[in-house]
Amino acid sequence: MAALVPGRFRFAPYIEFGKKAIAREATYRFDVFTSIGSFALRVYVLRMVWTALYARNAAPPGLPLHSILTYSAVALLMGLVLDVDQVSSLYEKLHDGSIISDFMRPISVPLYFFADGTGEVLFHALLIVPSLALALLIVHIDVPSAGAFAAFVLSLLLGYFVGFCVNFILNCTAFWTLEIHAAQLIVTWLTDLLGGELVPLVLFPAALQNVLYALPFAAMFSTPLLIYVGQIAPARYPAAIGLQVVWLLVLGAICTLMWRAGVRRVVVQGG
Amino acid sequence: MTIIEAVDLNKTFRSIVRQPGLGGALRALFSREFEEKAAVRNVNFALRQGELVGYLGPNGAGKSTTIKMLTGILVPTSGKIRVAGIVPHEHRRENGQNIGVVFGQRSQLYWDLPLRESFELLRAIYDVPRDRYNANLRHFNDILDLERFMGTPVRQLSLGERMRGDFAAAMLHDPKIVYLDEPTIGLDVVAKEAIREFIGTMNRERGTTVILTTHDLADVERLTRRILLIDEGTVIYDGSLAKLRDEYGTHRTLVVTLAETYPEIDVPGTTLDRREGNVVHLRFDRRDVSAEALVRRVLDTYRITDISLAEPDIDEIVRRIYTDGYVAAPAVVPG
């Protein structure tokens, strides 16, 4: 394999890959309507559940009903983007063998997947606008301070990159197994339950919390969300965001190693 | 000028030997036995710039493995390759800029997007200047008639239209070399013809070097002067099609339409190959007997309305080589 960034590097192809991915996603209009519809339904269901739970129990410290509803709504909005497996084309291309065509082109193949996946995610990010409007009809969403919001955006971006790495690793396993659906389901459950997408990690037993915070799934959802609702105070921003950066570096390294080994398998063993 | 060179090229795949049954599967978890299979063995060839070569061989002969090494996606086990001065697997991306590839069985176009969008993407990938891009598209449109379906999503195209699109896509960046892997498979006569004309034009007018892998020998007869025959990983013939036909196809068939019905047909020096009513096919070896002598014998014995001489078709020659192996025929001695 040639180095990742050659002497004459051009951005143009990758910008174009991103644009084409957006155009491709836009052709599935029905998916757009169903995903906004199911989003609204989930916001409604979570409002019912949390309201009922809070009516019968004492609110946990620092997390009144309006905070938990904000948390849930923002988590669902983030899910519109973070739950997209933007690297699934890698699995598909390994599965049907069409990845060969990409290796015949004068491009960096991992960067292609990054550009394509980012384009796909950007299209889904557009859905946030109508979804947010819909959510505001169902629940009240608290607005954080400017500082907390800035930290949230930074943490969200890191969460996105961590998610990209998780998906990349997951899809890379197809170099060896050619079948990844079971692993994908497990990761989806783990992010839903242990990453704080469905239930804030602060509501878990203390002993379990420490384990969960140390997992990469928390770096995707929980960290930005807890910053948003103020459960992570400004003084703890550096530690929380720092942990995300550590996860990003670790997972990035795993991505690189897996990609190299996978390509070697294709290139040397012939698939 | 030599543009593609393969010297003592070898590619060996290692695969795990699996014992049959559950016991074998369990044993394979702990101890693994490997089996080596040579897909390409000591292949040597050189192509001059502007050549159009047919690369033929039965399924599993090593054609695709060779092409994959030439494109840089497979690393040879041993031997040397140079393509336009570059070692493909060491400089995969630079090599990518020099080559175009068409797989008959696999589209490289964006499935969900109109054809035009795929072309725009390729323009960005290969950094094709806008005026060159437009000129190429106009030219391709003249031969391939792309305009009608430029705005149609690729998944809605017919196979013929899709292949035309794939060909244009492979040639947009003026590659020096194109590899065509069974490009006419499954196409109807009209589409095949358009594709063949396109290949021929690109080769003639632009001097594009072409390696054509196919099972359709009409492609080869129409387009190439030189063929490489590969079997079990080894090149068994490298030369012109005419020479192969000369050397190997020493038999001819005399097709005679009889004017009246004869119960028995017997022409010394021939064997009766087939008889359909009054039309008889007499097979002979031109090393044993000349066509002229045979025609005389036929005319002396029978009343006929028509007579013609059929050369062996290339399909048959190649089929025989695949099954019997290639043996250079002894020198022709006209009888």
User: What order do the helices and strands of chain A follow?
Assistant: HHHHHHHHHHHHH
Mean pLDDT of chain A comes to 90
Radius of gyration of chain A: 20 Å
Strands of chain B, count: 13
> What is the oligomeric state here?
heterodimer
Name the CATH architecture of the largest domain in chain B.
3-Layer(aba) Sandwich
| Largest sheet descriptor of chain A | none
Low-confidence stretches of chain B: 329-335
Structural class of chain A: mainly alpha
If interface size is counted as residues with C-beta under 8 Å from the partner's C-beta, which chains form the largest one?
A-B, 28 and 35 residues
Binned, the helix content of chain B reads 25-40%
- Beta-strand percentage range of chain A: under 5%
Low-confidence stretches of chain A: 1-6
The CATH class of the largest domain in chain B is Alpha Beta
Assign an overall shape of chain B: globular
Tally of structural domains of chain B: 2
CATH homologous superfamily grouping of the largest domain in chain B:
P-loop containing nucleotide triphosphate hydrolases
